[in-house]
# Entry
Amino acid sequence: MKTQVYFILFFCLLAFGLHAQQSGSIVYDELTFPSKILKSDRKYAIYLPPGYETSQRSYPVLYLLHGAGDNQTGWVQFGEVQHITDKAIAEGIATPMIIVMPDADTERRGYFNDIRGDFNYEDFFFQELIPYMEKNYRCRSEKRYRAIAGLSMGGGGTLVYALHHPEMFASACPLSASARVMDKEKLGKSYKNANITEKQLDEWSKKYDIHGMVKNMPEEQKKAVRWYIDCGDDDFLYEGNSLLHIGMRDNNIPHEYRVRDGGHSWNYWRTSLPEVLKFVSQGFHQY
# Structure
């Protein structure tokens, strides 16, 4: 009888252990919440790491931005974020983390405040999106446990957000970033029918001039963010990323710069993501 009881207990414990192991990651890609700033409901996708539902712990968070032409589902559908992150966590390359993927393609496209001042996405991101995530999910709210990354247009957003708010992010990883040199004349022509004043043009150009911000970065901010920049050698945005690297090097801003074989494609970004997860995880750790 005792032998039978031991066998029953053994199989119960085994089943419990298997159940715990099977408490895997979860991805939702059609969630919404209301924005007062953008006057609309905003979509987002979120990756919750293995064990999230069965634990009470809080997790570091990575904000992962999509490129032009995609939305919050881009990293889920084409970037295979769940499979790649699960694998990185299982192999010990990445620490378990929450990954937030907001939509920047509805109504207007992009992560910046509109030059006309009537669709301020950057304000929404910092004043509404981040507070909402930290209120509704178990996100660690300290800077050292918050990172940002993105591809193409989202790479440009990553650069600007970390440059504007170095107090918010431990690490920033722009991939194939939209990092062209600011062309004020071209910008003015694109808004010639929008009643944009010269002052508005000057202020917006200065605010979103990535290379200017790098060149004029104050000494006390140079080590505030851990930078990882990655762009393929066949990418049409290669020049801007190379100039970004040169500008950071000339201004003594520590950063990692990677140029690999490849172009502006999901094949490239899927191979970038494991390195991003590894890099931001190193920033989350205590040394």
